[in-house]
Amino acid sequence: MAAPKLAAFFIRIAGGEKKTLHKGEVLFRAGEPARFLFSVATGQVRLVRYTTEGEAVTIHSAARGETFAEAALFSDVYHCHAIAMGPSVVHCHPKVAILAQLAGHADIAADFMRHLARQVRDLRTLLELHNVHAAPERVMQYLLLHADAESKTVSRTLSGKEIAQQLGLAHETLYRALARLEKEDKIKRTTAGITIRKFSLI
Amino acid sequence: MAAPKLAAFFIRIAGGEKKTLHKGEVLFRAGEPARFLFSVATGQVRLVRYTTEGEAVTIHSAARGETFAEAALFSDVYHCHAIAMGPSVVHCHPKVAILAQLAGHADIAADFMRHLARQVRDLRTLLELHNVHAAPERVMQYLLLHADAESKTVSRTLSGKEIAQQLGLAHETLYRALARLEKEDKIKRTTAGITIRKFSLI
DNA sequence: CGAGTCGTTGAACGGAATCAATCGTCGTGG
DNA sequence: CCACGACGATTGATTCCGTTCAACGACTCG
User: Which candidate in A155, A157, B13, B56 could, as Cys together with A193 as Cys, close a disulfide (CB 3.0–4.6 Å)?
Assistant: First the structure.
């Protein structure tokens, strides 16, 4: 995923301040003036809208390393609520500073576009992955897409639960799929990560 | 979805030439120099990679109105293959022309960033939608997100099959979900579109 | 007037979610 | 330093519902 890179990009051009949230704390509400973009250092922040009946509709769950509210750059107010799902730390990047940088430096603007385009591509790939119905197959393709080309290994940067959430699987299903793939000798699990035995992307 | 708007944006700044593809025709291959960005006028184009074993991995299915290969802007070569899934017409937008416009006009660059950011937001929303497991609920939330605020109606711009594909559902399941929602009096289907009876987003 | 596609409903199967329980590890505080 | 709690990883049993296969009417387009 390119999200961590985008977070680094934000930090580089804006120098954000940190903010610590406890579980359930509201970072911003719909209608409030949009002054910051955010990146998640630790924890998880969920963006939700509410129906007139009070039912919540989740727009996005930003996990560790991901950014959110980029659209705030082009909007006066936020259009959803941001709520911490657990104890979390977020970086706040002032919108005006980012806009100034983007307007003043064509190379920085190009960088930003590159990062957005990459994120679009990654999201579409992930979305396509969700259309693979068989769990072991979906996991295998995820691993193929994320494996290092040289070592054919996916490092343990994300926990199993986090990967399962990305893949839209229950974590039990993910572990079962991994166990099955290992039994079929398609992957090998070590402390370092998961190594692919048979396949690799051209 | 914002994709159609992005397509219009491309056309506005680049003036693309049309290209007609028959089913199975290859638009570009991985490794070829990236000279164009594309938008789908009619039909459907699929982006795929292949494993060393020859197994196809779909990266993205670009439907009518959507754009693809935006990442080509920042890459010398394409990193996947593009294949028409059926008889299709695509607009080809010369990369150099777009880059020149983006570099020369800060307002156009800002437009492009806005469109990319919107697309990121839409994709994340769609991704989140896939985590709703119950089909009627998923369909309901899709309708809530896409309904016109005034009329509370989703117009029939996409066919049922296309919506089902977006939602990651078999089309039969979508129709069953719609039938059930209508029986529960939550929606009303007319020739104009689908009207939401009870809910609406704040 | 066919051919093809969309919309719709039925029946049966399979597999993922869910509930539940266990084990290991890490950090924390007493 | 150890007891405790929290959480990740793992496996088992059961339920449920979405997929799949199948069939049919309606509609459009050539």
Answer: A155
Q: How far is CA B144 from CA B141, B156, B170, in A?
A: 5, 15, 20
- Band of pLDDT at residue B2, cut at 50, 70 and 90: very low
Q: Chain B residue with minimal CA distance to A62?
A: B124
Helix-helix angle B106-129:B135-146, to 10 degrees: 160
Task: Please state, in angstroms and rounded to a whole number, the distance separating the CA atoms of residues B142 and B138.
Answer: 6
Q: Which nucleotides of C are covered by protein (CB under 7 A)?
A: 5-11, 15-20
How many Å apart are A154 CA and C5 C1'? 43
- Asked if strand D contacts B173 at the CB level, meaning under 7 A, the answer is yes
pLDDT tens digits along A1-44: 444 455 556 655 556 688 888 878 899 999 999 999 998 888 88
Task: Give the distance, in angstroms, between residue B134 CA and nucleotide D15 C1'.
Answer: 15
Residue count of chain B, please give it: 202
| Beta bridge mates, A187 | A196
Q: If we measure between CA atoms, which residue out of A128, A103, A117, A123 comes closest to residue B10?
A: A117
- Per the CB < 8 Å rule, is B51 touching A200? yes
